[in-house]
Structures are given as structure tokens and as C-alpha cells.
Amino acid sequence: MTIPLDSLLETAQVVSLPLKQKFRGVTHRELLLFEGDNGFAEWSPFLEYEAEEAAVWLSAAIEWAFGELPEPQREYVAVNATLPAVTPQKVASSLAAFGDFETVKIKVAEPGQDLNDDLERIWQVRRLHPQAKIRLDANGGWSVDQAVALAGAMVENGVPIEYLEQPCASIGELAELRVIFKRNGFQIKVAADESVRKVDDPQAVVLAGAADILVLKAAPLGGVARAMQIAHESGLACAVSSALESSVGLAMGLHLAASLPDFGLAAGLGTAALLAADVTENPLLPLDGELVVRRVNPSPRLLAEHVASPERRDWWLQRLAAAHALL
To answer: Which residues does the annotation mark as catalytic?
Structure first.
């Protein structure tokens, strides 16, 4: 679906939201909001993304604001806690914002850290939340050998890992890792994220036998309908996750999660808890490990409070025009 650029610019607002702590190397999350027939949508491709990739995110935002959407199958979606690559001393305070939870995703393979830093973070989570399911998200930052070493440490210490999310960068490495896990008797699943959303063919990882689970993010995949198509064609279990959006953007991911079959995997959509401020007075924050499926519209007061500088607004509007030209 294509909407004229002028229709987007008419209601476009750019904001900069502070994070509680650095995440993906940034301390603020910049994003652009616009309003359509369905309500507000968020367009927030990460700053380093080129126009071609940003255009995919724009397609998703336009669908959310103007398009027809599937009917959700559930009113509530279970969500995991998300732990940035913090020191062990900050684990408790970082997870406190998520309240009660059954699953925690721990960021690992942070640039400037090593496997020992990852292990110390994992051990601290185990001490504080011994019953929680653990996911490890490396964002493709490990070699095969490093992923095997970490997995071996988990098995040796009796730490049950629900899955490793994108432990290595390439599809070939993921496939190799699954073979090694099977050979060593490691009951650890491999989930693909970047190997689904940053490749020309999202099914390539499936055809290569490189994943047990797909991690789906509505915005980077081009919207709810496209993500649902990928899930259906893959035949694999899927976990829906966020891209560090505001509650406006998280609502789209929540709609996707509630429209898919229940795979028994908590969604990574509780990340509004990582923001020090949001664009709504009623943010999508987890309660007892769940989120209510609903749309979110921003608060004029908060939009004004967190408005981006004129220079950053101009940058985003020029970026919007460049991405829109590729639709």
C-alpha cells in the first residue's frame, strides 16, 4: 500500500526518548510518528540504516496506520524481560522494571566485552531468578567456537537455555552450530533474527536447516501481514520481538504476536521498560509477565516534552522522503 508523502508529512512528529541505560550503543531513541485512518504509527529504523532498509520499516508503519489488519486471536500476550549488557551489579535494578516474569532475554557478545562478562551476567540472573527461562541474544556477535564454548558452560553448570538468538552472523555458521550441538548432545535451540530480517530471502535460513525458531519483528519485516506470511511459510515456531520502539510501535508487534498461533514462546515486547520516557501516558508495560493487546496513541504533552531538535527533525523528514521514494 502506498500513501502520498504529503499525507505522512502532514502529521509527522519527531521525538527523542531517553533510555534508562545505553542499549545498542545509544542513550536516546529517535523516532517519527504519523497518523492514519487506524490511528498513529511509528517509523523508527535505526539511524545507521540506509534508505532501502528504512523503506521496509516505512511499509510496516503505513500498513499499521492505514491498512487492513488481521483480527488478533488473543487479548493478552506473554512477554519476557530484557536485560541489556550490564554489569552483574546492575542486573537486579535493570530487571526490576519488568516486575514478575517467567522468561528473561540476556544480551551477550557486547562489543568491548568477552565471554567472562557474559557468564557473570548469566550467573547473576540465575542467582536472582533461579526459576526463569533464559534466552541469550548475541546479535551475531559470536564465532561458532565462542557459541559452542558458551553452550558448553551452560550445559556443564546445569543452566537451561531456552534458545540462543542469532549466536553467529551467517546462515552457514548457524547451520554448523546446530550440527555441533546435536553431535555434542546439547539440547539448546538456535533462533534466527538478523538471518530472517536482513536477507533477501527470509526462508533461506529455514532451507539451510539453520534455525529451530524464527524471531519476527513487525517493522523490519515490512508489517504484520508480511511477518505472518513468513511465519506460515517457515513451518517453524516463532517468537515476536521488538526493535526498541515506543509504545506506539510496540503495539504493532503486539498485534502480530496475538494474530499468530500460540507457540508457547514469550514475546520480546516488554521493552518499553527500557525507556526512561515514552510518548503515551499509558505505556505498554508488562503486568505479571503479560501485555494487553491494544493500539496506543501518543500524548500531545509528551510529544511536546520530547520533541527532537529542529536539526534532527529536518534529518528525519529528509530520510522519510528518501525512503518513501523507494516504495
So the answer is: 107, 217
